[in-house]
Write a structure and sequence with these properties.
Blueprint lengths: L12 H15 L7 E3 L10 E3 H11 L17 H14 L7 H8 L7 H7 L21 H14 L11 H15 L3 H14 L10 H8 L7 E4 L25 H8 L13 E4 L3 H9 L9 H4 L6 E2 L6 H9 L1 H4 L5 E7 L15 E7 L4 H4 L6 E6 L9 H17 L2 E5 L4 E5 L1 E8 L1 H8 L19 E3 L4 E3 L35 H7 L11 H6 L33 E3 L1 H16 L10 H10 L8 E4 L2 E3 L9 H12 L15 E2 L4 E2 L4 H16 L5 H17 L4 E2 H21 L7 H4 L1 H10 L7
Parallel strand pairs: 6-11, 11-14
Antiparallel strand pairs: 1-2, 3-4, 4-8, 5-19, 6-7, 7-8, 9-10, 12-13, 15-16, 17-18
Helix pairs in contact: 1-2, 20-23, 22-23, 23-24, 24-25, 25-27
């Protein structure tokens, strides 16, 4: 029997067909109960399993290397075979570099039938490998087909004479993969190629530099488009020289000015002031269905997940099901793609003293199952917005190519080949929501996340108060989220000196948002009118008249207004700010504590908690009475020693003990994930015995809230209970901590459970 399939990739068609033939052969010699030895790499013929289980093992783990004679399954072992077994075993244990032809089938499924025919005409296959196939057309191939044939030629061309492991294309692909994984520069990659050419035989088919390597592999779909930016010099504005705001399209510096003044006739190439890099979305979505590794998984949300009322995936959420009921034609085909959009700025340089902010825009395909959905390999880079400063409110300018593509994917779709069902279909896509930290939330949504109305969920009904001495707004009004018969609603002295009578705000409908943004004097893009709008008039108390900065570009998507949740509050970003407030105030850290002279003067101004009012001792000295949450030195030492002694498993968290400074009684350098671990796991332990019960209890309740909210599995009834419980917890914290403690980030905690109920577990958002 032909056993060449055993050496091929598990993803290849020959391997799958080979398994089928092997099992047919092995079934003839099966035991009485129908089981056979499993020859996979895990079982190595040690276990008797059913034919179906053996099939799954061979697909998942591969067949055992060196098992060339199937003597466990009835094949007679000859002397020749026996003598070659050890040699064959050595030959087969080689690194799994994959089958480059299978990769080409995934990238160009429409030309797969021509692959053998092309190889036959090019004399690249042995006569025994040539099978019946369609004759190629006599006219020249189109551009897409020509790319395929060029790549196929490189895939069949040996790296050098006698090389068995690599073709020209596979060598370039694997080398470039190493470049990307290890962050090599173009210059270092060129140096590597040059030294490899010197090491290998003279006929080695390697490119001479990084540029030539990119030209070869770009046809695999790894290219992108460069669009000059300020406004986008794109489409009808592709040939413009000046932006709407008056800025030049081209970068200028002193060298350019001197060159223009010189008499040299040589022309220098102009350099764009900014370049937006756009990675088209459609070919990347098509490839998810062209690849045999992901095509079946893209239908998991409809065919694979368990619908038992428990939330494990966005497909279990209210937002997903509501969208399905509103757009039945879209949800009818489970292959249509649901996407989430995430964006934030970061400094790409190692030197953090360099001020630079570049903004990647990443898409998450939610069709995939939980074990694939949020993996780094599943993320799709769509845009790379240049720095050096944040795009801020003008981020919509850079979003235009992506939004135009999303419109087309919704209205028309794109023809896609599904390799799992062996058919073409019209793939459509929809954007479910965005994922950002709070400042970026304001840039994408258009709501001003600063000032008196900073909470986008409460909208115009945000409860805030200007602190005269602190010089900022506090957000203490959480009692209106309680039932009106709750005892806290009539308690004046413990809160802000007023009785609470207002109801909780309701979630805005699409009509309310459209009405609020209808009269905005904002034109899309960078214009002089928009620059004037940034200098809006303010009222005497500092509150902005209009909290809306713009109507988001996403509202140009016909379905966007009907989404149940358009923009997500980033739980980890909020959690990090809350834990910073907590430990900064408990330890009374300079610059981080919310309990200082200004905070006490604000309490005096509000006429509440008289026991904490500052007492003037002399003309230049003021005494601040200790609060119930103030730690004495011994309590601080005990609290910090607990954190200093914590040891966690590798990969669970960073070494938090390095952030604890016992001598200075400080916590410094906590990253976002460190704050996540500190809030949910370590804070309840460290607080025991360090603070009075009335202070420790609500802080432990806050910690438990975040721990339950961040669970991988959620129940709707439990989220309702969490939403009610966190309101009481925040009210208890209002009784303990000063008003300055309640920044907008602390207030946003009250909305997190509601958003999780609408959308999905927080690690998807």
């Amino acid at each position: 029997m032909d056993k060449s399939w055993m050496k091929k990739s598990r993803l290849s068609r020959d391997y799958v067909q080979g398994i089928k033939e092997f099992l047919e052969f092995a079934s003839r010699n099966a035991s009485n109960d129908g089981t056979i030895p499993c020859p996979c790499m895990k079982c190595v013929n040690s276990y008797m399993l059913t034919v179906e289980v053996v099939h799954d093992h061979l697909v998942s783990y591969g067949i055992s290397p060196g098992y060339n004679c199937w003597y466990h399954h009835g094949e007679i072992m000859s002397a020749t075979t026996s003598s070659r077994t050890s040699q064959s075993h050595v030959e087969e244990i080689r690194p799994g570099y994959g089958d480059i032809r299978d990769m080409l089938r995934d990238v160009f499924p429409m030309h797969t039938r021509n692959m053998d025919e092309y190889a036959k005409e090019s004399n690249l296959l042995e006569p025994s490998d040539q099978g019946p196939s369609m004759q190629r057309a006599q006219e020249d191939p189109n551009e897409d087909a020509q790319k395929f044939y060029d790549l196929l030629e490189d895939a069949e061309k040996h790296l050098y004479e006698g090389c068995k492991n690599f073709s020209k294309l596979s060598a370039i692909v694997h080398l470039y993969h190493l470049k990307c994984l290890n962050g090599w520069s173009n210059h270092s990659f060129t140096m590597l190629l040059q030294i490899l050419k010197d090491m290998l035989p003279s006929d080695a088919n390697l490119p001479k530099d990084s540029y030539d390597a990119k030209k070869i592999i770009k046809d695999l779909g790894l290219d992108y488009e460069k669009i000059h930016a300020c406004m986008l010099f794109w489409k009808e504005h592709a040939n413009d020289e000046v932006c709407h705001c008056g800025a030049s399209r081209w970068a200028t510096n002193e060298n350019d000015l001197q060159h223009n003044m010189s008499t040299s006739s040589k022309k220098r190439k102009k350099k764009a002031a900014k370049v937006l890099r756009w990675f088209p979305l459609k070919p990347r979505l098509q490839r998810l269905f062209m690849s045999s590794k992901t095509a079946a998984s893209m239908k998991w949300h409809a065919e694979g997940h368990t619908n038992d009322g428990i939330m494990r995936h966005p497909a279990d959420s209210i937002a997903w099901k509501t969208f399905d009921s509103q757009y039945v034609d879209f949800s009818f085909d489970s292959r249509n793609v649901r996407l989430g959009l995430a964006s934030d700025g970061f400094n790409p340089y190692g030197n953090m003293s360099t001020s630079y902010s570049i903004w990647p825009v990443i898409l998450v395909p939610y069709n995939l199952p939980p074990w694939m959905c949020m993996k780094r390999s599943s993320f799709i880079l769509s845009l790379l917005i240049p720095g050096p400063s944040s795009p801020s409110n003008d981020i919509d300018v850079y979003m235009q190519p992506l939004v135009e593509e999303l419109k087309e994917l919704w209205d028309v779709g794109v023809q896609t080949y599904d390799i799992s069902s062996k058919e073409n279909f019209q793939m459509r896509a929809a954007l479910m929501w965005t994922i950002n930290d709070f400042p970026a939330y304001g840039d994408l949504s258009g709501w001003n996340t600063k000032g008196a109305l900073a909470c986008p969920s409460c909208n115009y009904e945000t409860h805030s108060r200007w602190l005269k001495h602190g010089g900022k707004y506090c957000f203490m009004g959480h009692r209106h989220f309680l039932d009106k018969d709750h005892r806290f609603c009539k308690d004046r002295a413990s809160f802000d000196g007023k009785q609470e009578t207002e109801p909780a705000p309701n979630m805005l409908s699409r009509f309310e948002i459209m009405m609020q943004t209808e009269d905005l004097d904002y034109k899309f893009g960078k214009t002089k009118a928009n620059e004037k709008n940034k200098k809006r008039k303010k009222q005497a108390d500092g509150d902005e008249i209009q909290p809306w900065k713009k109507r988001s570009i996403f509202f140009t998507l016909s379905y966007w207004a009907n989404q149940k949740l358009r923009h997500n509050l980033d739980v980890m970003h909020i959690e990090k700010n809350v834990i910073d407030n907590v430990y900064g105030t408990l330890l009374n850290l300079d610059g981080k504590t919310k309990d200082n002279l200004k905070a006490r003067l604000d309490l005096q101004e509000m006429g509440i908690r008289r026991e904490l009012h500052p007492q003037k001792i002399s003309s230049n000295k003021t005494y601040l009475p200790p609060a119930c949450f103030s730690m004495i030195l011994k309590e601080k030492d005990d609290f910090l020693k607990v954190l200093k002694g914590v040891k966690v498993p590798d990969g669970y968290a960073s070494n938090i003990s390095r952030c604890i400074q016992l001598r200075q009684r400080k916590i410094i350098g906590l990253k976002s994930h460190d704050g996540h671990i500190l809030m949910q796991q370590l804070l309840p332990i460290a607080l025991r015995g360090a603070l009075p019960k009335k202070v420790a209890s609500p802080l432990i309740e806050l910690s438990c809230f975040f721990r339950e909210l961040c669970s991988k599995v959620l129940q709707v009834e439990e989220l309702d209970r969490l939403a009610s419980r966190i309101v009481v917890t925040l009210c208890n914290l209002e009784i303990i901590f000063p008003p300055s403690f309640f920044t907008v980030m602390v207030h946003l905690v009250v909305h997190l459970a509601i958003e999780a109920k609408i959308a999905s577990p927080v690690h998807y958002r």
